[in-house]
Amino acid sequence: MRSTTADGSWTLLTGHGHVLVAIARNPEARVRDIGDDAGLTERTTAAIIADLEAAGYLSRERVGRRTRYQLHLDVPFRHQGQEGHLVGPFLELLAGQPTAAGGRTQDSPDS
């Protein structure tokens, strides 16, 4: 795994958090590009994406030869210390762009 800090020490987010933020920034990115953004190998990134999908944080859809990720913003954090908090506002803050409001998925149509 590549380190994302100058001194090789720890970072505040886990690899799972970094991958989720990278996907929020670009839901059509390739696994390789997501890994580069998150500072992880392609294999590690693919395993993390599988974890996130199994936990309900995202789903994948094939569009031609590419994969498009759909984030599920109304899913709560898994740790008891963040009980009651949804992942959507976290991603909106760290991705640097607005995501869908009201706990809908990123690609949900507006009402």
Descriptive overview:
This protein is an alpha+beta fold. It has one domain: Orthogonal Bundle (Arc Repressor Mutant, subunit A). Helices cover 37% and strands 11% of the residues. It has four helices and two strands; from the N terminus they run αααββα. It has a two-stranded antiparallel ribbon with strand order 1-2. Strand 1 and strand 2 form a beta hairpin. Helix 1 (15-25) crosses helix 2. The longest helix has 13 residues, at 42-54. Mean pLDDT is 83; it is low at 100-111. It comes from Actinospica acidithermotolerans. Residues 16-65 form the HTH marR-type domain. It holds the Pfam family MarR_2. One of its GO terms (molecular function) is DNA-binding transcription factor activity. This is Winged helix-turn-helix transcriptional regulator.
